Every structure is written in structure tokens, then in C-alpha cells.
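Re: [ENG-882] Designed sequences occasionally contain unexpected residues at chain ends

Forwarding the minimal case from QA. C-alpha cells:
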């Protein structure tokens, strides 16, 4: 037995299987079991320590620009200690930021996954997200009138596993695109191809019936990007056909689905409460617009380095005390825009750092040609216009895991293109 394990370890399979386990646990944690999200990076670090050639591979971390940019997020947070004032929040934010170090480290220094293992992780994410979406749809169909009434007043139906609705909508949209890509994978069995195609169709149904506003935004922006890609390559028939479907789809959904009508009408009414100066205490979008105006006022006063990531909440509440928009203290929310949040906490320096993390892969030929990475960046960049994704732990974990699994791993493979052993 010791000899068997010694061979298992020295071959690199132990490290690879630990990384595989960490990935599967991370996906399961995002979908259902929150504790696994916290444990997955720990398993990833153990995968690094189990690499039999760790000493030889250590320099690879310093050659991986994606991993170093992620580490720079933590470095900037540490440097903000020079001007932060809310030390308890700062310490908490430092602890929360550890996945920025652990996850890229795992995908840089652990023995890389085989193509089949990467396919299994991607398929698990797509099929698992679809299963949760269909179960949530079933819950909606048990009492659609009550669910539509909740939508009418601006509420959202939580996933059956209690995943936050914004994060879950983004996961559904990402699963739609990745499912269509994965079903073309050369290692995908016929049954898996069929399951992934069926998942894409099911996700379209779930997103529209449940009227997840953010998820639909991400979906249609992604489809418009596909239209642009087709037209740029002069596939005019396909591009114009898809564009026509994109115009027809929302119209059909509005006229056939009560949930979509309620969501649309509630959205318009919500925004009107802000533009017309009415009481906005019970309106989500109106409060977000008020928060954006509040954040911009603070940003103008601290444009270079921001107020400090740990002091953003205090700065917002202080500005609300000067102009509260008629909001009660319990309804004074944070800015729901990741770019403004980066400006608020880190100023132009923090925003530049964040934009480098998000968009630098598109400047590299290898990562730019990877459609999985392109859709990851597009979906995340879109949702970040309407949500401060990284302020929620699930949003942070979802981004960092996708960033490590796709961007860091792709750059690591480019730096060390030797094929992974079985």
C-alpha cells in the first residue's frame, strides 16, 4: 500500500484529483452547500502541496499574469490600511479576500486537470444549475398567481436552494452559453451532448418564466455579442436571423407570460418613482439609482484613492445623512454597480486595477480566442453594471472560481503547454 500511494503521489495524480475534487466541491457549494465553497480553496491548496514537482513549478506562479493581477487586489487592500478608519471591517475584508490568493495559486501550481476532468466540471456546473432552475420553476408553478404578485411588487423568486436571485440568474445565463459550447467538446459522449442541449433550452424557459431581470439582461447581451460576431465574419443570414429572434423573443415573452408582464410593468413603475421624486422606500431600482447618485458625490471628493474598500459603507451612510432622498435608514443601500464600487473604495487606482483583472485577458491572443473566457468576461462585465457582485460572498466566490478555472488555468497552460497526463 505505501508503494501504491507513493506511485500515486509521484505520478501527480494525487494532486490532480485533489484539484478536481476542489472544483466539484466549489460548483456544488455555489449551487447548494455553502460550506463547500469555503472548503474548496483549502482542498485546492492541498492539491498544490501534493504536487510532486512543486519546487520546480514555483516560478510558474510569478510568470502567470492572471494570478498576479488577482494577488494585486489583495495587495491594494493591504495598502489601504494606510488610510482606512474602520479596522474591524478592514480585517474582515482581508479575510474575505483570501480566495483571490488561494484559487489562482491552485490553478497555477497544482497538477493541471485533464481535458476530460475539465469537461466533467463544466458539465456538472451546467447540468446542476439547470436542475436547480427546473426545481425552482416547479416551485413557481405550484402557485403562479402568488409568485406573479410578488414579482409585481418588485420581489424575486429565490432558487429552491436559496441561492441569491442575482447570482442565480447569472449562473443560468452562463450555463446557457457554456452548455452550447460544451456540447461541441470532442470528449462529450452523445448522451452528454443531448443533455447539454436540453439544458440550454430549459434555461431559456426558466429565465423567462421566472423573469429574472439580471439573468435576462446577461443572456440577451451575450446573444447580441454572438450576433455581432456572426456579422463581423459575414455570416449575414445567421446573424440577421438571430437578431430577428432576439427582437421576437422578448415580445413573445411579454405577451404570453404573466410573470414577464408583471416584471416589465414593475420595472417601469419603479424607475418612475425616482424620476418623479416620489417616495422610493419600497422600490428596489429607485433606491439603486439614489445609491448611484450618492456614490458619485463621494467619488468626486475622493477620486484618486477612494475612501478605502473597508470604509465604503460608512462613507455612503455619511453622505446619506446630508441627502437621504426620503429614505429611512434601513432602506439606504450600497451602490449596485461594481465599477462605481471600485471607484468608491479605491478611486481611479482601484478602478484601473479592477479593470485590468477583468479585461486584460482580452488583450492576450490565447485567452481572447477562448470562447469560454470571452463569455465569462462578457457575462461578469454585464452584471457588474447593475450589481456590486463582489460585495456578496457568493458573487465573489463565483467570480474567483471562474477566473481561476478559466483565465488562470488557460494562462498557466500557455506558459507550460505540455499536455496533461491521464
Amino acid at each position: 500500500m505505501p508503494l501504491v500511494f507513493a506511485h500515486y503521489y509521484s505520478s501527480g495524480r494525487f494532486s490532480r484529483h485533489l484539484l478536481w475534487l476542489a472544483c466539484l466541491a466549489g460548483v456544488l457549494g455555489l449551487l447548494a452547500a455553502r460550506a463547500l465553497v469555503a472548503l474548496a480553496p483549502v482542498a485546492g491548496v492541498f492539491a498544490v502541496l501534493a504536487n510532486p514537482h512543486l519546487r520546480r513549478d514555483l516560478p510558474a506562479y510569478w510568470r502567470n499574469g492572471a494570478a498576479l493581477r488577482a494577488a494585486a487586489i489583495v495587495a491594494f487592500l493591504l495598502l489601504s490600511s494606510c488610510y482606512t478608519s474602520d479596522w474591524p471591517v478592514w480585517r474582515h475584508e482581508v479575510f474575505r479576500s483570501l480566495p483571490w490568493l488561494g484559487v489562482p495559486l491552485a490553478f497555477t501550481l497544482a497538477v493541471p486537470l485533464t481535458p476530460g476532468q475539465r469537461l466533467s466540471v463544466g458539465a456538472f456546473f451546467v447540468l446542476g444549475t439547470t436542475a436547480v432552475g427546473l426545481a425552482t420553476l416547479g416551485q413557481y408553478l405550484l402557485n403562479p398567481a402568488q409568485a406573479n404578485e410578488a414579482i409585481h411588487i418588485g420581489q424575486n423568486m429565490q432558487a429552491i436552494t436559496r441561492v441569491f436571485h442575482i447570482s442565480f440568474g447569472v449562473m443560468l445565463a452562463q450555463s446557457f452559453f457554456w452548455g452550447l459550447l460544451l456540447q461541441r467538446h470532442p470528449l462529450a459522449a452523445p448522451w452528454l451532448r443531448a443533455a447539454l442541449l436540453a439544458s440550454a433550452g430549459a434555461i431559456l424557459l426558466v429565465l423567462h418564466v421566472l423573469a429574472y431581470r439580471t439573468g435576462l439582461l446577461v443572456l440577451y447581451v451575450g446573444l447580441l455579442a454572438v450576433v455581432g460576431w456572426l456579422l463581423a465574419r459575414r455570416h449575414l443570414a445567421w446573424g440577421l436571423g438571430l437578431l430577428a429572434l432576439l427582437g421576437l423573443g422578448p415580445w413573445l415573452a411579454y405577451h404570453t407570460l404573466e410573470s414577464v408582464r408583471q416584471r416589465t410593468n414593475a420595472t417601469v413603475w419603479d424607475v418612475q418613482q425616482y424620476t418623479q421624486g416620489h417616495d422610493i422606500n419600497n422600490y428596489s431600482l429607485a433606491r439603486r439609482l439614489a445609491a448611484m447618485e450618492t456614490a458619485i458625490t463621494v467619488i468626486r471628493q475622493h477620486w484618486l484613492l477612494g475612501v478605502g474598500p473597508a470604509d465604503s459603507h460608512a462613507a455612503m451612510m455619511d453622505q446619506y445623512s446630508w441627502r437621504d432622498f426620503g429614505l429611512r435608514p434601513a432602506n439606504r443601500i450600497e451602490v449596485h454597480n461594481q465599477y462605481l464600487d471600485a471607484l468608491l473604495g479605491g478611486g481611479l487606482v482601484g478602478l484601473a486595477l479592477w479593470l485590468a483583472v477583468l479585461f486584460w485577458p482580452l488583450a492576450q491572443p490565447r485567452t481572447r480566442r477562448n470562447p469560454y473566457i470571452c463569455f465569462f468576461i462578457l457575462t461578469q462585465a454585464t452584471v457588474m453594471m447593475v450589481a456590486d457582485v463582489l460585495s456578496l460572498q457568493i458573487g465573489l466566490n463565483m467570480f474567483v472560481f471562474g477566473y481561476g478555472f478559466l483565465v488562470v488555468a488557460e494562462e498557466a497552460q500557455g506558459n507550460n503547454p505540455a499536455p496533461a497526463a491521464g
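QA comment: On inspection the terminal residues look reasonable. The two ends are 21 Å apart (CA to CA). Proposing we downgrade this to a documentation issue.
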